[in-house]
Each structure stands twice: as structure tokens, then as C-alpha cells.
Design goal:
CATH topology of the largest domain: FAD/NAD(P)-binding domain
Number of domains: 2
Helix content: 25-40%
Oligomer: single chain
Strand content: 25-35%
Largest sheet: 8 strands, mixed
Shape: elongated
Number of helices: 8
CATH superfamily of the largest domain: FAD/NAD(P)-binding domain
Distance between the termini: 37 Å
CATH class of the largest domain: Alpha Beta
């Protein structure tokens, strides 16, 4: 294949999902990086083809997350940044609100959720009793609910396209179909060996960078391991691989509903704490179409197929709050994979850190960026920008 050409960049962002795109956008508008060469490496043929395009497209309010967690902080901040961005750049979105519903006997759990929301700074929830619920959503069956007016929906593809366009206008390069094969440590940063494969031509491409930002999503741990393995080779006393968190894959499937959509709000059951998931909820897209999901199932590999036999389980779950649902109108939609970090008895949180303890302050790793990653994307990008400011 010949000798790979080596190009020099100031910043390499690995991963062209919503987080990598938001980071590129954020840095491209910072005067401190005005003359820097920034490139996004994306192994797929286009941006956002994995986790970023396989979610509910919900703008979350910040209700569920552990108080003082990064998820709670960055969701709250990111929510308003995302709404502002959508207005500024005319991204299709709507603040349609969400109802978190409780069945008889679950009222205390609903009250506890409201308390957590207040601790997280979400102070605009309203308790809705059964009678008012029936007037607001006649097809809904529940004893009470919390109404979140800050919850909305967004066209995630349009949002990601806008982030990329704005970044490219500031000189950011988007390198699609580019897989990172290895990373070597150098005195002035990192040397990456990649393969560019567009389906017709497969060719090696090597590049150097001072700053490496790992936004690789499902592949983030593998990418970080490439660097940490290099540290161990350089110094056998170092065991930096132990600094990497352990990761689980949680698969969530969605089913489209071909029947009439009776709802005007998003409808969520109480969250499933055992699976660190929000439960099978009713989501409305910007066209008004109704879908249900996701469920949560632990997986050891990436598999985006949707098992049509799950419709029975979905129907049983959804009929608790939508009793007139017609099970025969549930059709397999799509599936997504979330990254969950192994923790001891606490929900998985975002991990965003520079690796200064490993002697690599110019390496920034992002691990466990699942929901509310879309909502938090601009706030996450701001956090990365702050970390860079501390080290450059």
C-alpha cells in the first residue's frame, strides 16, 4: 500500500457523533484556536451514525440524575444551551413537555423523583392529579404525574449537520470513513495510524497531533487503551490500563406505532433503577408520529437488530399507561446501544477527564456518554474546552 503520508494537526477529535461535533464547533469559535488545525476522524461514512442517531431525540430537563453528578450538572446547563442553539440556527425542535406517570401505589416514588429534580435545580415541575390528567391526556391511565415543561424534542440530524457546517466554516476538517488503527506516543504529542476506506479504495493515512480528544463513543475505551498500552510499553512500572473504567453495553429497542397518536406530550413511566434506564416511554417526533422505547437489555456486543417478538413485552408494558394500545400496530423501529460504566451501587455517570495523572495532559477522554448526552452536548463541549484551557 506504500508509505503513509504524515500530516500535522494541532487537535484531533476522534468520533463524529454529536459530542465530537459539538466539541469541534465549540473549539472552532474560540479565538484561542482560531489558527489551529482541527480534524474530526469518523470511522463511519457520515456523522452520527451510531449512538447519536439511535435515541429518542428528547431534550431532557435534568430530573433523574444523581445530585451533583456530571449528568445532572451538564444536562441542566446543556438543555438551555441546546434550546438557544436551536433558535439561533433554526433547528427544528419543540418544547412539548413531558408527563412522568405513576400508577396506584407509586405516588411516593413520584414524590421522591420530584425531590431529586429540585435538588438538581429543576424547579418548574408540576404535580398533576388523576382528574386533571384525564382532561390533558384522555387516553392516559395513571393515578398522578409530574409535568416537566422544559422537556422537548429536536431533529438530531439537523442539529448535528448544523454543528458540522458551522465548524467546517471555521476551518475544521471532517475525515469520514477513517478508522484509527494505532496510536504512538511522541515527544510533542501523538502519532495516529489510520485506514481510510470509502468502500472503493482502502489506504493508510498517518497524522500527528499535540492534542487528542477521545469522543469515540462505543469505541472510546478501546481507543484509550491504545494510548495506555503504549505507556506500559514505555515504562513497565506503569499500569495505566487499570485507570480505565469498565464498560457495559445496554441495548435499547424502539417500536413504531402505526395507529393514531392520542398524545400531545411525551409520556414516561417511572424509571427502571435496576437497569439504569428511563423505562419504555411514548415519544412523539416532530411530524407527530408515535413510537415507544427504549427497553434496556445488557449486551456484550453491538447489535442494532430489533426482535419483532418483543412487541408482546412492549405492549404489556405500555398498556399500563395506554390501555387502548393496539398491539398489532406495533412495528419494529430501530435500536441503539448505550455505554454504561460499571459502578458500585450508583448510576453510571459521565467521565470527562484529561489524563494528566498519566503524564498526558493533552489527552482528553470521554467515557460513558449515554443519555442525556444529546441534551448535554454543548455543555460537555464547554467542559472539554475548559480542560484544554488548563493544560495549554
Amino acid at each position: 500500500m506504500g508509505t503513509a503520508k504524515v500530516d500535522q494537526f494541532d487537535i484531533v477529535i476522534v468520533g463524529g457523533g454529536v459530542i465530537g461535533l459539538a466539541v469541534a464547533y465549540q473549539l472552532s469559535r474560540n479565538p484561542a484556536y482560531a489558527n489551529k488545525n482541527i480534524v474530526i476522524l469518523e470511522r463511519e461514512k457520515n456523522f452520527g451514525m451510531q449512538t447519536s442517531s439511535r435515541n429518542s431525540e428528547v431534550i431532557h430537563a435534568g430530573i433523574y440524575y444523581a445530585t451533583e453528578s456530571l449528568k445532572a450538572e451538564l444536562c441542566l446547563k446543556g438543555r438551555e444551551l441546546l434550546y438557544d442553539y436551536c433558535l439561533r440556527f433554526e433547528i427544528p425542535h419543540a418544547r412539548i413537555g413531558k408527563l412522568i406517570v405513576a400508577q396506584s401505589g407509586q405516588e411516593s416514588t413520584l414524590e421522591a423523583l420530584e425531590k431529586k429534580a429540585i435538588e438538581n435545580g429543576v424547579n418548574n415541575l408540576t404535580t398533576i392529579d388523576h382528574a386533571l390528567l384525564k382532561r390533558i391526556e384522555p387516553a392516559l391511565a395513571a393515578s398522578s404525574a409530574l409535568f416537566s415543561p422544559s422537556t422537548g424534542i429536536v431533529d438530531s440530524h439537523s442539529y448535528m449537520q448544523s454543528l458540522l457546517t458551522n465548524a467546517e466554516q471555521q476551518g475544521v476538517i471532517f475525515s469520514r470513513s477513517t478508522s484509527v488503527e494505532s496510536i504512538k506516543l511522541e515527544d510533542q504529542g501523538f502519532r495516529l495510524s489510520t485506514i481510510i476506506d470509502d468502500g472503493r479504495l482502502r489506504q493508510p493515512y498517518a497524522l500527528r497531533t499535540k492534542i487528542l480528544i477521545n469522543c469515540a463513543g462505543l469505541g472510546a475505551l478501546n481507543l484509550a487503551a491504545m494510548v495506555f498500552d503504549e505507556l506500559e510499553i514505555a515504562d513497565s512500572r506503569l499500569q495505566w490500563s487499570h485507570a480505565l473504567p469498565e464498560q457495559l453495553f445496554s441495548k435499547g429497542s424502539y417500536f413504531d406505532y402505526t395507529g393514531r397518536n392520542p398524545f400531545t406530550h411525551l409520556i414516561y413511566p417511572l424509571p427502571d433503577s435496576e437497569k439504569d434506564a428511563l423505562g419504555i416511554h411514548a415519544t412523539i417526533d416532530l411530524s407527530g408520529a408515535l413510537r415507544f422505547g427504549p427497553d434496556a437489555e445488557w449486551y456484550e456486543h453491538i447489535d442494532y437488530s430489533v426482535d419483532p417478538t418483543k412487541a408482546v413485552v412492549f405492549a404489556r408494558s405500555v398498556q399500563q399507561y395506554f390501555p387502548t394500545l393496539d398491539p398489532f400496530k406495533l412495528k419494529p423501529g430501530y435500536a441503539g446501544i448505550r455505554t454504561k460504566l460499571k459502578t458500585e451501587g450508583t448510576p453510571s455517570d459521565f467521565v470527562i477527564r484529561n489524563e494528566d495523572e498519566a503524564g498526558l495532559p493533552h489527552l482528553i477522554n470521554l467515557f460513558g456518554i449515554d443519555s442525556p448526552g444529546l441534551t448535554s452536548s454543548l455543555a460537555i463541549a464547554g467542559r472539554v474546552e475548559s480542560l484544554l484551557a488548563e493544560t495549554t
